[in-house]
Design goal:
By secondary structure, the protein is mainly α. The chain has helices at residues 2-12, 19-31, 34-42, 47-52, 58-73, 77-92, 97-111, 114-121, 124-134, 143-150, 154-162, 165-171, 178-191, 195-203, 206-216, 227-240, 243-249, 251-262, 266-279, 283-291, 294-309, 312-326, 335-348, 352-360, 365-378, 382-389, 394-399, 407-421, 426-430, 432-444. α2 runs parallel beside α5, α10 packs across α11 (154-162) and α17 runs parallel beside α20 (283-291). The N and C termini lie far apart (65 Å).
Length: 461
């Protein structure tokens, strides 16, 4: 069948009315597995098929588009750019939307391939035509594709701006439709992933506008539709830029996150938890949170309460957030930072070790694993190790393999053991006997099962 594809393609090039042969080629192409077609297509040129798109015969265009969709889908994005860039650019200018959609679909694949994108950046005219076509009202294409292009480089962003797409997007931030506003904020967040995108948003005053939107949300009864996206915008901005600079310049962001966690709306609480979990995952973010003083202490107490009394889903998100806040790399463990995380741990509950120890013994695997993540977060820190060794039965619980547990629970406990064993202070704080027990557990792996001797009884069947 592969040979017939080659033969038909050659035959079509010689015909003035190739519709019958095109339909035969379509059937042949669809019958060949994609992997086989990829090997075949790499050595072919489809100029004849692209040329046949220049026709008033709608059926001929339909069949050609179907064949090219199959052929081009089998090729790697880098191959598309290297061999069919001009054809795709011409397809963007076509009067038939089916041809435009074909070109845009393949461009979407190109935008997801780093090597192919680099090649595209060397063709500003191609990018310009791409933006112009995407901005057309006659064709529908995902906005994410435009944002991918805008994030490629300052040049591609300029084309997006000149094509009015970005301007239209930014205007939707203050539109009357709250759902469109929420979507616009989400897209602006994507644009902020690139440095040139952030610079553009700052120059246009968009970051200040979003900050003011958070302030204005208090008096908007429909703010719940878009407020989470406003907070996510600043959360992402802080992580790709600088937590300290963003939080200090836009204090309303942190205030709103704390307010969401202290509130009663589950959706808002969840967004707040996720945001401080991300923010507190880096050392700079931890220091920013700590600078808020008593306000963050109140948040920590709220986290402690939620971890015990909320719905299961909320408890899990809360435990993940706590683990993120308390985690410290070894090279970050200065005296001041260790003192900070220790104070945070004790702010969660009046008896935090007993509380999390109780959770880790519950029959609910997810809660059990969540508590183990918290212990793993503090396992490399000397104060955490001292709390563990000072809790009766804790070491015995860690190395106990007799309890029935699923794979994820075993993996979670193994991570805790690994964090302890790899710590420089563990032998001194836990003592040699316990240290050797933990090291043996680590060497045996997470799924080790101790052999049980079977004694034969004389006369037994």
């Amino acid at each position: 069948m592969a040979s017939s594809v080659t033969e038909l393609l050659s035959e079509i090039a010689e015909l003035s009315e190739p519709l019958v042969e095109l339909n035969r080629l379509k059937a042949a192409v669809n019958s060949v597995p994609l992997n086989t077609l990829r090997e075949l297509a790499t050595g072919l040129r489809f100029g004849v098929l692209f040329n046949l798109l220049e026709s008033d015969d709608r059926e001929q265009i339909d069949v050609c588009v179907a064949i090219l969709e199959r052929f081009l889908q089998s090729l790697e994005p880098i191959c598309l750019v290297q061999n069919y860039k001009l054809e795709l650019q011409k397809g963007l200018q076509h009067s038939d939307d089916r041809v435009k959609t074909l070109a845009l679909t393949q461009i979407g694949r190109i935008s997801e391939c780093a090597d192919a994108v680099v090649t595209v950046l060397g063709s500003p005219e191609f990018i310009k035509e791409m933006i112009h076509s995407i901005g057309s009202e006659r064709i529908s294409i995902a906005n994410e594709l435009v944002l991918e292009i805008a994030n490629m480089s300052p040049v591609s962003l300029e084309y997006c701006v000149n094509g009015s797409f970005v301007t239209r997007l930014l205007s939707e931030l203050s539109g009357d439709d709250v759902l469109i506003r929420a979507t616009a904020i989400e897209m602006v967040t994507t644009l902020a992933q690139s440095q040139h995108g952030r610079q553009y948003l700052a120059q246009q005053g968009i970051i200040d506008r979003i900050s003011n939107m958070i302030i204005g949300a208090k008096s908007d009864p429909f703010s719940s539709f878009y407020l989470p996206n406003l907070v996510k915008f600043f959360g992402n901005l802080a992580m790709v830029d600088s937590p300290q600079q963003i939080c200090e310049r836009y204090p309303v962001f942190v205030e709103k996150v704390f307010e969401m966690i202290e509130g009663q709306e589950p959706t808002m609480i969840g967004v707040g938890l996720d945001t401080i979990g991300i923010l507190g995952s880096c050392i700079e973010g931890k220091q920013v949170l700590n600078k808020t003083g008593t306000a963050f202490q109140e948040v920590l107490r709220r986290l402690g309460s939620l971890s015990c009394n909320a719905s299961t889903d909320m408890r899990l998100r809360c435990l993940d957030t706590i683990a993120s806040l308390l985690s410290l790399q070894t090279d970050q463990q200065t005296e001041d930072i260790l003192g900070m995380t220790e104070s945070w741990f004790h702010a969660l509950h009046s008896r935090p070790m007993e509380t999390f120890r109780s959770m880790s013994s519950q029959p609910f695997p997810d809660i059990h694993i969540g508590a183990l993540k918290v212990f793993t977060a503090i396992a490399s820190q000397p104060w955490g190790q001292r709390l563990m060794i000072g809790t009766p039965g804790f070491v015995e619980y860690i190395v106990d393999r007799s309890t029935k547990a699923d794979k994820n629970s075993k993996d979670a406990k193994f991570e805790l053991v690994k964090a302890l064993v790899n710590s420089k202070s563990i032998a001194e704080i836990f003592g040699n006997q316990h240290y050797l027990q933990l090291r043996a557990y680590l060497q045996e792996g997470p799924y080790f099962v101790k052999a049980v001797a079977v004694v034969a009884v004389e006369g037994g069947e």
